[in-house]
Write a structure and sequence with these properties.
The chain has about 400 residues and is of the alpha/beta class. It is built from 16 helices and 14 strands. The strands form four sheets. Strands 3-4-14-9-10-13 form a six-stranded mixed beta sheet, with helices on both faces. A four-stranded parallel beta sheet has the order 7-6-5-8, sandwiched between helices. A two-stranded antiparallel ribbon has the order 1-2. Helix 11 links the parallel strand 9 and strand 10. Helix 2 crosses helix 4 and helix 14 packs across helix 15. The chain starts with 15 loop residues before the first strand and ends in a 6-residue tail after the last helix.
């Protein structure tokens, strides 16, 4: 494995992708952030760090994850559909890729604790896992609504030794969890590292998380060329903050023959504020959580209320590189509603025997539409996580409707 060996524009020295990104934080915290940047710039070039992370990816996480030709789904929709199986990683999602990197960075910086937010719980579980392995304390902030929806992941975090802190204000979901995690970090930025869970936040986190996640696309490119001796016609990935999508897109950004699709949640109704989390479709440039990107804003310009059936996509902004890629028309951003996502959740389960995370089901739902439109083209879906975490919620909310 190599870090940062891919074809995409780097952020500039201040962390900007075009006009997006940067670091909008208090001066005292900027000093700490500059230290994180310097430490990361050093380790990304350190052979010992790269060797240690590579060994963990192979022997602990189980990389490389396979690509599966979904023949039943392909036959149903008239396209060649492939799944990059990030759901088979240890902890069940792509999140472990950057959590191990961030935990190792924290250890090398002499931190005693890592903390973070989580929505669906996958980042929280992955970070709790990395903390246990590396020997660090771990605090995870999670909205009460998400704690009820994703109870299996709450239990997993607690078993792993993490301190799960309920967030009880606002809508009690991901945005509020991020707010609370930042507050917790500001109390002691010296001995703690905020291990941000996506390609969001102040510089260097959008760059750093992208770099750790780029292994997904690097593997996929090599694997598909070995399987079909060609690049895919299309790549589809769900987008909340955007870590799994940027992870698979990065290796293909210079390949004009590959069309890229980021799929965000239109929730109940994309035309009703507060009933969706379709940032790229309905957002405007703005600053929140220390960085500039597209965001959903209210009439006062403050972050707007958002909703998605997928807790991991329930966020009113998006990674700054995604905003840049939207503006230069390199990635096409589309939206899928709750019903389409849940239909796809059950269809993949019953056609291929693979239960996906509800987040990933958004990508599957759009790939079905794309297959119908394009007929015969190849589609690679980043199956970013498995649905174990969602089964209680699915049974309670949709079980009767789907014959359970």
């Amino acid at each position: 494995m190599q870090i940062n060996t891919f074809n995409c524009p780097q952020p500039d020295e201040k962390g900007y992708f075009g006009e997006y990104g940067g670091s909008f934080i208090p001066p005292e915290l900027q000093i700490i952030m500059d230290e994180i940047t310097s430490s990361y710039e050093a380790i990304r070039k350190d052979p010992a760090f790269i060797d240690e992370l590579t060994d963990l990816y192979q022997h602990y996480v189980g990389r490389p994850t396979p690509i599966f030709h979904a023949k039943n789904l392909s036959k149903a929709y008239g396209a060649e559909i492939y799944l990059k199986r990030e759901d088979l990683n240890h902890t069940g999602a792509h999140k472990i890729n950057h959590c191990l990197g961030e935990a190792l960075l924290a250890k090398k910086m002499g931190k005693r604790k890592i903390l973070a937010e989580t929505g669906a719980g996958q980042h929280g579980v992955a970070l709790a896992t990395a903390a246990a392995l590396i020997g660090l304390e771990c605090d995870i902030y999670m909205g009460e609504v998400d704690m009820r929806k994703e109870h299996p992941n709450v239990v997993r975090m607690q078993i792993l030794g993490a301190n799960v802190i309920p967030v009880t204000h606002g809508r009690k979901t991901l945005k509020e969890a991020v707010d609370s995690a930042f507050e917790g970090y500001m109390k002691d930025p010296v001995t703690q590292l905020y291990a941000i869970g996506s390609v969001v936040g102040p510089h260097p986190f959008p760059m750093m998380v992208r770099d750790f996640q780029s292994i997904v696309g690097n593997e996929a490119k090599s694997q598909l060329q070995g399987m079909i001796d060609a690049l895919p016609d299309n790549i589809v990935a769900c987008v909340g903050g955007g870590s799994n999508a940027i992870g698979i897109f990065t290796a293909f950004l210079q390949d004009d023959s590959v069309t890229l699709y980021g799929v965000e949640p239109s929730g109940h109704d994309i035309n009703v504020p507060g009933e969706h989390a379709a940032t790229m479709s309905k957002g405007v440039p703005g600053v929140m959580h220390g960085f500039k990107s597209y965001m959903l804003a209210d009439e006062q310009g403050e972050p707007g209320q958002v909703y998605s059936v997928a807790s991991g996509l329930d966020y009113p902004s998006v990674g700054p590189q995604h905003s840049y890629l939207k503006d230069i028309d390199r990635v096409n951003y589309r939206a899928i509603d709750d019903k389409e996502a849940i239909d796809a959740f059950f269809e993949l389960s019953r056609l291929e025997g693979i239960i996906p995370a509800i987040e990933s089901a958004h990508a599957i739902a759009y790939a079905k539409k794309l297959a119908k439109e394009q007929g015969g083209k190849s589609i690679l879906i980043n199956l970013s996580g498995r649905g174990d975490k969602d089964i209680d919620f699915i049974m309670e909310t949709y079980g009767q409707e789907y014959g359970l």
